[in-house]
Amino acid sequence: MRQHALEERHALAQTLRRADPGAPTLCGDWTAAQLAAHLVLRERSVLELAGRLPVERFRRLAQKEIDDLVAREEYDRLVDAVDAGPSWRDVTLPVPTAAVWSLPVVRESANLLEYLVHHEDVRRAAAGWEPRPVPVELQMAVWKRLPVAARLTLRKVSVGLELRWPSHGSVRTRLARRGAPAVQVTGEPVELALFAFGRIDVAQVQYAGDPEAVAVVRGAEIGI
Fold it and tell me: Which of 21, 79, 88, 106 has the fewest CB atoms lying closer than 10 Å?
């Protein structure tokens, strides 16, 4: 089986190596170093995982853990850890976070979109960026994972959405499936994934539908 998530992680690490540690990214106000630290801790720390919950205290603690790691670890070593990925040897907490993430089946099912979006967070924050060529096998793998991700990331959009990959099909949100007027967002899977994770300004997609509904979509809170 082609290990798309593993390949994308290595590609992301290569892009991070070429970036300055203080370079901006499209992931909020994180620098490249903070994004690398997030990727390291995401697969090794229960606290960082808890920071994704809608609890401000957890988010502050997770951010502090990221900042502390950036402060004490050399950037090159952070990127090396991203590239290497987690191992069962990384288990230092009561919950074996790293052991779970190191399983190929978990990595491939849960990490491809994470690595892909963060890879583009680094690439497309740089001046003069251009879309990279994406093999059709990777586009298909992204498309396969998009329905589950879209249910989570697009849940707050107040109008129906239909994500369309021409000649392949569409992914519709709950409101669209119920028959509500839908805004059609058309593009290749990688671009639709960037849209679905809130990178609207850089996602190369086309919109169709009622202009007011399109304006709602373009101004919506999209993401986890």
Answer: 88
The gap from C-alpha 26 to its chain's centroid, in whole angstroms, comes to: 10
Q: Is 202 exposed, middle or buried (0-12, 13-18, 19+ CB in 10 A)?
A: middle
* Token pair for 94: 């009561």
Are the CB atoms for 161 and 185 separated by under 8 Å?
yes
73 and 156 Cβ atoms separated by less than 8 Å: no
Residues 143/9, Cβ–Cβ less than 8 Å: no
The Cα–Cα gap between 186 and 162 comes to 8
Tokens of 213: 């509904």
Strand partners, 165: 169
pTM recorded for the entire structure: 0.90
For residue 90, what pLDDT is reported? 52
pLDDT in tens, 22-51: 999 999 999 999 999 999 998 888 778 777
State the SS3 of 75-109: HHHHHHHHHHCCCHHHCCCCCCHHHHHCCHHHHHH
CA 152, chain centre distance (Å): 12
